[in-house]
Amino acid sequence: MRILVLGAGVVGTASAWYLAQAGHEVTVVDRQPVAGNETSFANGGQISVSHAEPWANPHILPRLLKWLGREDAPLLWRWRADPAQLSWGLRFLFECLPGATRHNMAAIVALSLYSRRQLRKLRQNLDLQYDQLQRGILHVYTEPREFAAAIEAARLMREFGLDRDTVDVDKCLEIEPALAGARHLLVGGDYTASDESGDAHKFTRALAERAQAAGVDFRLNLTVDRIAPGGRKIAGVLVRGPQGSELLTADAYVVALGSYSPQLVKPLGICLPVYPAKGYSATLTLAENSLAPTVSLTDDERKLVFTRLGNRLRVAGTAEFNGYNLDLNPVRCQALLQRVHQLFPSLEVESEPEFWCGLRPATPSNVPYIGRTRYGNLWLNTGHGTLGWTMACGSGAALADLISGRLPEPDFPFRRC
Q1: Can you tell me whether residue 70 is helix, strand or coil?
Q2: Residue 362 counted as an annotated binding residue
Q3: Which of 157, 195, 282, 401 lies in disulfide reach of 353, CB 3.0 to 4.6 Å?
Q4: Binding site annotation covers 10?
């Protein structure tokens, strides 16, 4: 089949790769000049199956109350005259029920484990280089109550097949000695040795190059204006570029536009519960011999991650629900640096930090939408939230199976919308 993929982020590019490997003729459209240039550009860098506990869980409600009115809150909700935001928020509250949380966690772990296996195969077969490290991910806790909740979450994840092990403070420092200056802050942690880290932007560009060499056509600097329906199927996609507008046609269409997916499919009568969660990052260039972590870390109290990418340290995280606003909030930027100094007081850098923000496509449940829509030839691969890098390869491989008429391997709710 001829397949048109809308979006060249890490999810769209992975989808294109696997569809091409399945024998399809694939074209990718994106408004950026290179692949992976928006939400995939400067994210936290973790392939983190261990981060599978959704934001919507029974423990989040008291935290939300604690964070109200704080400009530097890990989760900042800015009320807007936006029905989509209100609807998303109400569905989020429902997903906080214990039964829903367990169901969602099981689905996220299943897809993430599968995705990590697919990534490893790609890396080996294609010799991809993206500042990757296979040293695991260490979650650290600075509040006893948070640590107690994490022990239960780790137990559940082991039940679902993930090696997330609870560790004491001494073990945390053995795993990552750079935390020695913050020993007095720590109460414990958990460690997933099989997790990984790496630069999602570098990976996406490298995979796009391999895909292009394999015959995938990347049509960049093209903005998708609308999808044109034709009865129960899609007739084409209207795009706009430097040479004007044109209608692109194919046998099947994949929407992998992250947070912008709902806007594109809404005129088709598809209500997609995906809302942008703005995440922040700061990238620090490390001085030579600086005492910096080499194991990727997750700070659950602040909802931040710390990832070593070559001679850089990436600190990223938090979620700001403020529509499609991409302005950098200086308070939230400085909160990233403050936490760096608290956990790594001896860290030395060579230059000023590079701040960035991106819109992560969040569903209320943290479970992405992967599957066919009510239109027979329109497919979705979106809504991965904070786990787009983690789930990208598995999502792309599973979608290629679905479109090719095969049953995907992971036990995951591939659902219509």
Answers
A1: coil
A2: no
A3: 282
A4: yes
Binding site annotation covers 16?
A: yes
Tokens of 185: 């802050």
| pLDDT confidence tier of residue 149, bands split at 50, 70 and 90 | confident
- Provide the residue ranges of all domains of the chain, joining segments of one domain with +: 52-82+133-194+275-362
Q: Consult the annotation and say whether 6 binds a ligand.
A: yes
Answer yes or no: is 255 a known binding residue.
no
Asked whether residue 356 is marked as a ligand-binding residue, the answer is no
Per the CB < 8 A criterion, the answer to whether 72 and 81 are in contact is: no
pLDDT in tens, 377-394: 999 999 999 999 999 999
Residue 151 annotated as part of some ligand binding site: no
How far is CA 322 from each of CA 77, 80, 260, 278, rounded to the nearest angstrom?
7, 7, 14, 7
pTM assigned to the model = 0.96
Q: Would you say 15 is a known binding-site residue?
A: yes
d(CA 286, CA 126): 29
Report whether 45 belongs to an annotated binding site: no
Q: Is CATH 3.30.9.10 the classification given to domain 52-82+133-194+275-362?
A: yes
The answer to the question of whether 36 is labelled as a binding residue is no
